[in-house]
Design goal:
Layout lengths: L7 H10 L13 E4 H18 L2 H10 L16 E8 L2 E8 L9 H12 L5 E2 L4 H12 L6 E5 L9 H13 L4 E5 L4 E3 L2 E4 L2 E3 L1 E4 L3 H6 L5 H9 L4 E2 L4 H4 L3 H7 L17 E3 L6 H7 L5 E5 L9 E2 L3 H10 L4 E5 L7 E3 L5 E3 L2 E9 L2 E11 L5 E5 L1 E4 L1
Parallel strand pairs: 1-21, 5-6, 5-10, 10-11
Antiparallel strand pairs: 2-3, 2-18, 4-21, 7-8, 8-9, 12-15, 13-14, 13-15, 16-17, 18-19, 19-20
Helix pairs in contact: 1-4
């Protein structure tokens, strides 16, 4: 649907200008999720996380030797992050799961509130209206203390556009009763009880540094390494979630369809294999034809290094040069959605992604990504509304 005679200016004002997050793009066109699918995915995500929160998967991750940060056992509260599903004509298909605090976490409740104000009584089931309160419950369980909390963030150029969001997230948590401050992770000084930054003492940490970024740039995050090694119990969430959330989990889930709870989630999971499962490109091509492939690095973010329906030359190159850190997932195409951008231009999406945010394994919020241009093109955040 196209929102035409609605106060869309108020929607954008609340999301962009009030929050200061002017680098993010939004659309007022909601992703309408049927209630049956909504409820099924709300059961599927915790069931998949229960499977990953087991000794078998812990040992599997360690055996892969893909992770160089010191692993630390995961607690229930550490299973906080998001699951992304491609919306297809055959339903929703899992494309990745991030077991760490995801982007735009500070805006998810505002997205719900702005959506309800935009559409009024037109819909009955708005999402995200209590998302931050639910996240706060997990934070307080993970960090049961009243000491000041440092929200640790990256200083790297890719994070420049997110700085306003980090500050907004801190403001929202402080409004709910926490005492948080945004702190560049590379500037902390480790102390016996936590860390110091600009003469401020902190005794607990909310980590917003993407685990893949941290693990891949440890030299520039050396103070963060030391902080993690000396005070792992003061972190939320545990960065070991990065080890749990590599693309290997797609292969692991595909191989676990025999599990007793698999009926809750197996139709949301596509075929997936590691490159290392195959002795040769010919063996890979016996299992997947090029038009059936999506190639993904095991530790990617922001679609970097992802190739959809690659040609044979690229397949052979990656297999020869990066066999140890690439995987293949079955290709499926997305449905498309007409939508409007903030300028009022009417566009057609390339694909749709349905994101389920979870805290302590339980869904707390939802977001649509309307992707324009190509699969890794321009991402517009869309509200999610549940319909009967």
């Amino acid at each position: 649907m196209i929102a035409t005679n609605l106060r869309t200016d108020l929607f954008y004002d609340q999301l962009v200008r009030e929050s200061g997050c002017s680098e993010y793009l939004f659309t007022t066109n909601p992703l309408l999720v049927p209630n049956g699918l909504f409820q099924r995915l709300n059961k599927a995500v915790p069931a998949m996380l229960d499977l990953l929160d087991g000794e078998d998967y812990w040992n599997y991750c360690l055996q892969q030797q893909q992770w160089s940060l010191k692993p630390h056992p995961m607690k229930l509260t550490d299973f906080t992050g998001c699951a992304d599903f491609l919306v297809t004509s055959e339903g929703a298909k899992l494309i990745e799961m991030n077991i760490n605090l995801p982007g735009k976490i500070g805006l998810i409740q505002t997205l719900g509130e702005a959506t309800k104000q935009l559409f009024g009584e037109e819909y009955n089931h708005y999402t995200n209206l209590n998302a931050l309160e639910e996240l706060l419950t997990t934070i307080r369980e993970a960090l049961p203390t009243e000491v000041p909390i440092a929200i640790l963030v990256s200083h790297l150029p890719a994070s420049d556009k997110h700085q306003a969001h980090y500050r907004y997230f801190a403001d929202e948590l402080n409004r709910l009763g926490l005492n948080t401050t945004v702190v560049p992770a590379r500037e902390v000084t480790v102390t016996p009880t936590g860390c110091n930054w600009k003469d401020l003492e902190f005794g607990a940490f909310i980590n917003l540094v993407i685990p893949f970024v941290w693990e891949g740039n440890q030299a520039v995050f050396q103070p963060l390494n030391t902080l993690w090694e000396q005070h792992p119990d003061l972190f939320f969430p545990n960065p070991t979630g990065g080890m749990f959330g590599t693309k290997e989990l797609l292969h692991y889930l595909d191989a676990q369809r025999h599990q007793p709870n698999a009926k809750l989630w197996n139709d949301f999971v596509l075929r997936a294999n590691l490159f290392s499962d195959f002795d040769s490109v010919d063996a890979l091509l016996e299992a997947y034809q090029p038009h059936e492939m999506v190639l993904k690095p095991l530790k990617d973010y922001d679609t970097k290094g992802v190739y959809v329906q690659p040609d044979l030359t690229l397949i052979e190159q990656l297999f020869a040069e990066r066999k140890a850190d690439y995987m293949v997932q079955e290709f499926t195409s997305s449905v498309q959605l007409p939508f409007e951008n903030e300028a009022g231009e009417r566009l057609l999406s390339h694909s749709l992604i349905y994101r389920v945010f979870f805290a302590s394994k339980q869904p707390i919020a939802y977001q649509g990504y309307v992707v324009h241009g190509e699969f890794n093109g321009t991402y517009y955040s869309a509200p999610v509304i549940v319909v009967d």
